[in-house]
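Feature request, filed as a ticket because there's no other form

It would be nice if the structure record came with a short human-readable summary line next to the tokens. Right now we just get the raw output. Example of a typical job, pasted below so the devs can see what we mean:
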Amino acid sequence: MDGVPNVTRADAAAAVRNPLAFIAARWTPEPRTVRRAALAALTMAVLIVVTGGAVRLTGSGLGCPTWPKCTDDSLTTTSEMGFHGVIEFGNRLLAYVLCAAVGWAIIAARSQKPYRRGLTRLGWLQFWIVMGNAILGGIVVLVGLNPYTVAAHFLLSTALIAVATVMWQRTREGDAAPRPLVGKAVQQLVWALIGVSVLLIAVGTVVTGAGPHAGDSSDVPRMPLDWETVSKLHAVLAWIVVTLTFALWFVLKAVDAPKSPLARTRDLFLVLLAQGAIGYVQYFTDLPEVLVALHMFGSCLMWIAALRVLLALRERPEETAGVPGPAAEATLTRA
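Raw output as currently delivered:
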């Protein structure tokens, strides 16, 4: 086993000044380590959505009635707050785990050799989305679970999942310019699929905001819309996404596309079928909490699957050299 290198005063000063560069100069992770770090960040991004749904579905949205503290006098939940306080505070704690996962992804990407600026920036973008969503989550509590702020909170989480998915994909690629695997018409079809998917998710937040699960046992205002009408619009959009996915699969077969776009399109179609089944069952069974939670999880999987279809339309060779590291990093290197 190699000995631990001596850390001089200059090293300590460099670590304080730029800790990421200090770590990168002394550690080179394996490619699989970087991939796992990116996957961990994506997994936590999905998990935070699911646990946030659990907060709402158990009526624990105001289990901690203020923010950033749990109460005016306590940073943590108290015994008087009971089950709802535990659920809400637990979700807040899980946000720190998400921050740790994103931080690990940033460190791993920054330390990879050769240095990959684009990959590291994707990690930092996740960090700033997490910070923004944490502030927005506090606003959600302070305004008493206003449905519009709750919808924005979910949509920002969806953006986090998108960035995490792209970073996870990029860890398995090189840094060359993307090389398309399909023609322009197929690309346009997929972009239409992505656009309708975004609209589907957005309308889904309206269904939730107008529906019965307000997130708290008290009288929380709902969006002034007819819930059944919005639900039917949501279903129509879902069928459009299914139709576009089915059409895409046939087009890819017709043009003899590579296996990757076909496989990702098949995966999306299967996720959509499962998500649609859950959606219809929950609609006709008066929205049981367990099925609503599964539907939220399915929404995350559907979004990831749709993005993977888009990302499968091009390739970046892994053997392509990355961008040279910053000059400042060289000053930290020790023989």
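Something like this underneath would help us a lot:
Confidence is low (pLDDT under 50) at residues 320-335.
The first helix runs from residue 9 to 17.
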